[in-house]
Design brief:
By secondary structure, this protein is an all-alpha fold. The protein contains 6 helices and no strands. The relative contact order is 0.11.
Length: 187
């Protein structure tokens, strides 16, 4: 088909650009980890940066199945990074309070927060599917990617809740206390 080769080259070039920016962000997160001596997702700013990173990671994982997924993931990752750099989030590296100095915190928060990236992909795929249905052009690949990302997000979220219970037992001597956050997690 005429015009397919230039379009493919543009998609490849843009995918490589997204990959380069993703690797640059990964290096930045690695530097932050090295400087602070802890995982870079213990405050609101770091968590937002990590959510943007996992969203683009999920998009890169699904890019072969649906290039539109990488586009949606890049858009969402960019919005999340934009929000992380607004004035009300403090990017300063600060020491952790003693209760947060646990390897279980690193595991719990990283797994839970990674699930948000996959759920974000699922939500964007759902919107894309809805637009496709309304315009009479349903997209089967988006449906598949949406379902798979929902399953991955659910598995990560479930595992993260269990890791949080282990962390709570280590920190406070109880697995579950029915505080508002734990009650919401059970819902």
């Amino acid at each position: 088909r005429p015009g397919t080769r230039p379009r493919r080259r543009i998609v490849t070039a843009l995918t490589l650009a997204v990959l380069a920016v993703f690797l640059w962000q990964s290096a930045g997160m690695g530097c932050r980890w090295y400087i602070s001596g802890r995982a870079p997702w213990t405050n609101a700013y770091e968590s937002m940066v990590y959510v943007g990173w996992t969203t683009v990671l999920a998009g890169l994982l699904f890019a072969r199945r649906s290039p539109l997924t990488l586009t949606l993931a890049t858009l969402m990752g960019g919005v999340v990074l934009f929000v992380s750099n607004l004035n009300w989030l403090d990017p300063q590296i600060t020491p952790l309070v003693p209760v947060l100095r646990s390897p279980w915190l690193m595991i719990h928060v990283s797994v839970i927060t990674a699930s948000y990236g996959f759920f974000g992909i699922c939500a964007l795929c759902g919107l894309g599917i809805l637009v496709g249905l309304l315009t009479g052009r349903p997209n089967r690949e988006l449906r598949i990617v949406g379902e798979v990302s929902m399953i991955i997000g659910l598995v990560l979220l479930t595992a993260g809740i269990f890791f949080g219970a282990v962390w709570a037992n280590e920190s406070w001597g109880r697995y579950w206390g029915w505080d508002p956050k734990e009650t919401w997690a059970a819902a």
